[in-house]
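Key idea: predict the complex, not the pieces.
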Amino acid sequence: MEHRVLYSECAGTEDGRDSQVLPSKRRETSQVQEMDLDDIRCCLSGDGEAYRRLVERHQQRVSAIMWRFSRDTETHEDLVQDVFVEAYESLATYRARAPFSHWLARIATRVGYRHWKRERREGTIQTVPLAEWDAVLEQPADDVEPAEAAELLHRLLALLPPRDRLVLTLRYVEEHSVEKTAELTGWSKTMVKVQAWRARGKLRQLFEKATQGTDR
Amino acid sequence: MNEENRIGKLAQRARLETPPHVDVTHRVMAALRVKTRESAPRVDPLAWVAAAAAAAAIAVLVAASGFGESWTDTFMASRIDIPWWLL
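Result:
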């Protein structure tokens, strides 16, 4: 795989390699990976258009990831842009051991986490008061619109420090496995488990405090 | 924990959300162009002044060495009028 980046021709086209062998979904994924590798190689040899193709191919996936980090449309677009700029700057370090999209997802997670840390430092986080949560959660979850549910979760988890917020978002909102979370964050699997356990504890404490506050 | 179950259900709903459609291609390419331009080696305006000064210095050096040679030339030396007050 690694060597294909170095030796394949700089085509930038969508040809159908392995088309007879692989089932359609796998074939599609394989074709995207082949195109990515071609474009990365072209980009590294100075073809600016090749990176444009990579951005066009992956921007919706990156957009979906970054939407969990910011729900403000302007900030969200800035973050998506930051991911691609950062990816371009470290493109030479991509070793093709994993698909390009996985590599991009790791960068996106790093950019998003940095954004949360900055937000917390600057005090610009928008949270939802926990006292209002009971009212929100009394209605059946199925009645809540997906966008509203995502917004509520976003604001609820914003009450936690960025590290806890990240692990809970990846494990419970995105439903990633421990392995995948470890891959995205760059932490060990044990670290992910410990961090998730601590984060859940902190969330529980927040709810308990809120309940005590409303009981008085 | 009851809240956790509720959060789990909300998360299920949240996963159904369609993220906004973005097109950042032009923005990314523009940002990269700016970055590339910034990182390209630039000739500082002071470097031009330094180059001009160096060229002038070389010219003066060449002229001076020529003048020195003619000054030390015995034939030329004999032709130089030495003012009376120097003698």
